[in-house]
Amino acid sequence: MLWYKGWLETRFNVFALITVACLFSWGGPPAGQDLIGVAGFLLAMIPVNLAGSGIKTQSALIRKGPVSTYFTLSLPVSRFRLFATRAGLGLLETVGIFAIAPCGIWILFSRPEDHVSRSDLFAIWVSMSVCASACYFLGVLLSTLLDEPVVGQISLFAVWVFSALLSTDPRLAPVNIFRAMLSPLFTHSLPWASMGISLGVAAALGWTALRVMETREY
């Protein structure tokens, strides 16, 4: 039931983001590595919009305020299970939407001279999914601290600030998760450093969000 409830709460966001992902993927090939960071920031909007704390989560079109929160808290399940189910569903939706980008790249770079192999496309999907996990759990944490509808705007602003900080210093390029998302298109290898840092940040943010949700009085 929790999985179905989460799907009902996020389905409109999923359909809207699939449309955006299709337009982004088939809009045209990247002009160079300078646009990779911008593309990564745009991709990071997807997990932020799908993030939810597991309790304060409503429909994307119908905002019912605390009513939905009280109903969720009344369910005979633990807060940990609520958190794990909602976070897991959002991650699955994010990974599924990210699969659209490699498909679009495969269509755009279908000529042999483009040197884009299927392994490169798989690496792009893996790097996008892993590097975006930090942005996803940042949205999860903020959703436990803030109320609708400001949590979406503040989450996007926080990701923008994070992206700007990583782009200002060239020495941070190896750990820039936004540039790393599509970097296999040029490097033909996985960005292990950026992926490891993103997973570490995601784990810390996820644990903090869970602790906040378990101790907070709603």
Summarize the structure in short:
By secondary structure, the protein is mainly α.
What does this structure look like?
The chain has 218 residues and is an all-alpha fold. The protein has one domain. 71% of the residues lie in helices and 0% in strands. The chain has eleven helices and no strands. The protein starts with a helix and ends with a helix. Residues 28-33 have low confidence and may be disordered.
Keywords:
218 residues; mainly alpha
Number of strands: 0
The overall pLDDT, averaged over residues, is 78
Largest sheet report: none
Overall shape: it is globular
* Portion in beta strands: under 5%
Helix/strand class: mainly alpha
Radius of gyration: 18 Å
Span between N and C termini?
Answer: 22 Å
> Strand-and-helix sequence, N→C?
HHHHHHHHHHH
**Domain unit count:** 1
Number of helices: 11
Helix share bin = over 70%
Low-pLDDT runs of 5+ residues are 28-33
Topology, element by element:
Layout lengths: L1 H24 L10 H15 L15 H8 L5 H20 L1 H9 L9 H14 L1 H13 L4 H19 L8 H4 L3 H4 L4 H24 L3
Helix pairs in contact: 1-2, 1-4, 1-5, 2-4, 2-7, 2-8, 5-6, 7-8, 7-11
